[in-house]
Amino acid sequence: MRTDDFDFPLPPELIAQNPAPTRDQSRLLVFQRPSGAISHQKFADFPNFLQPGDLLVLNNSKVFPARLRGVKDHTGGAIEFLLLEEISRNDWWVMLRPAKRLHPGDSFSIVDFQNTPIDTRAKLIEKNSEGHCRLQFQTEKNILDIAHEVGEAPLPPYIQRPPGRPTPQDIERYQTVYANPIGSVAAPTAGLHFTENIFAALKTRNIETAFVTLHVGAGTFAPVKADTIEEHRMHEERYEIPAETFQKIEATKKRGGKIICVGTTSLRVLESAIRANWQPGPGRTRIFIYPPFEFKIADALLTNFHLPKSTLLMLISAFATPNSTEGIQKILHAYAEAIKEKYRFFSYGDAMYLTPLPTQ
Question: Is residue 211 part of a domain?
Answer without folding.
Answer: yes
